[in-house]
Amino acid sequence: MNMKVDLCGVTLNNPVMTASGTFGAGEEYSEFVDLNRLGAVVTKGVANVPWEGNPTPRVAEVYGGMLNAIGLQNPGIDLFIERDIPFLKKYDTRIVVNVCGHTTSEYIEVVDRLADQPVDLLEINISCPNVKEGGIAFGQNPKMVEDITREIKAHAKQPVIMKLSPNVTDITEMARAAEAGGADGLSLINTLTGMKIDIHRRTFALANRTGGMSGPAVHPVAVRMVYQTAQAVNIPIVGMGGIMNADDAIEMILAGATAVSVGTANFTNPQVTMEIVDGIRDYMERYQVKDIKELVGAVHDR
Ligand SMILES: Cc1cc2nc3c(=O)[nH]c(=O)nc-3n(C[C@H](O)[C@H](O)[C@H](O)COP(=O)(O)O)c2cc1C
After folding, report:
1. How many structural domains compose the chain?
2. Which end of the chain has less neighbouring CB within 10 Å, N or C?
3. What is the position in ligand 1's atom list of the atom closest to the CA of 219?
4. Which amino acids does the record list as binding FMN (predicted)?
5. Domain for residue 255, yes or no?
């Protein structure tokens, strides 16, 4: 039985990855998870310099998930290269670095710094709803998506996966724009913009007022967007959004994802990624699927 997948020319031992921002650079989870058994670790977003993030409170629980407005707090590329890449290199897993910035030149600075690093893939976050400049400002305008993708591709030494926002009218427009700019792959979905109000204090639950919604409630939206995107482009897709177990991961693969990322579920069950790897294998045995590629986009009308 083959669980290996090819993601933009990089072979993953299986399709299960972690979602950026929910798994650090793997170190906090290494006592719960055998990192060697993950297809890839996707790191927390990293910028050219350290970012403090937004004021607190910056997370809140909501029905079927959570809101966050972390604001991409990160240690900056210097410390990341010194500390996080050597940590991850100890494991037999692929390394995907999530990159964030306020301007195109900030993204490019990070991409340039990573050029000679042992990093397998870059995931470019143009879809964070919680930063005022950069982030989502890029991800909601097809022209900007195409332009920033092209500029990053001109510098990147690793394959480039553009991470798309669900906070748009037509996800396929953004997907096609990234493909036109030369993206090697796409990942989706980032969080959906939401709001929670504390009725007793009559205040916003998050200091940022709005936050990004993630968790099981967003899963059907994510599956629909992955399906639509897979119909619209010819580059591989990393599917994410509310994957809580192997069934959810398989659903995403059937919708058209080559690999999946697991985010919020790690917070309630730090071993969930291992259970998902095992659960996908059980499903393949049960239905005599010899190669996981047979499942990618295999959904059909009843
Ligand atoms: C606390 C938190 C922090 C996040 N930080 C990042 C980030 O730094 N970069 C990024 O591209 N996405 C970030 N995300 C979005 C996730 O990677 C993922 O796209 C989203 O949460 C949907 O997946 P999930 O429902 O499995 O969590 C973050 C999500 C959460 C909950």
Report:
1. 1
2. C
3. 25
4. 20, 44-45, 98, 125, 163, 189, 215, 241-242, 263-264
5. yes
Is the residue at 198 inside a domain? no
In the chain, the amino acid numbered 42 is: V
Question: Is residue 2 predicted with pLDDT exceeding 80?
Answer: yes
Q: Are strands 192-195 and 197-198 parallel, antiparallel or unpaired?
A: unpaired
Residue 112, both tokens: 């340039």
Report which of 4, 187, 190, 184 is spatially closest to residue 93, judged by C-alpha positions: 4
- What distance in Å separates the CA atoms of residue 121 and residue 79, rounded to the nearest whole number? 19
Per the document, the length of the chain is 302
For the Cβ of 45 lying below 6 angstroms from any atom of ligand 1, the answer is: yes
* Domain that includes residue 266, residue range: 5-54+73-192+215-295
Tens digit of each residue's pLDDT (9 = 90 or more) over 120-144? 999 999 987 777 666 677 889 999 9
pLDDT on residue 144:
93
Q: Residue 124: which CATH number? A: 3.20.20.70
As annotated, the active-site residues are 128
The answer as to whether 142 is a domain residue is: yes
Whole-angstrom distance, CA of residue 128 vs CA of residue 73: 12
State pLDDT tens for residues 11-50. 999 999 999 999 999 999 999 999 999 999 999 999 999 9
Phi then psi for residue 11, to 5 deg, are -90, 125
Residue 211 Cβ inside 6 Å of ligand 1? The answer reads no
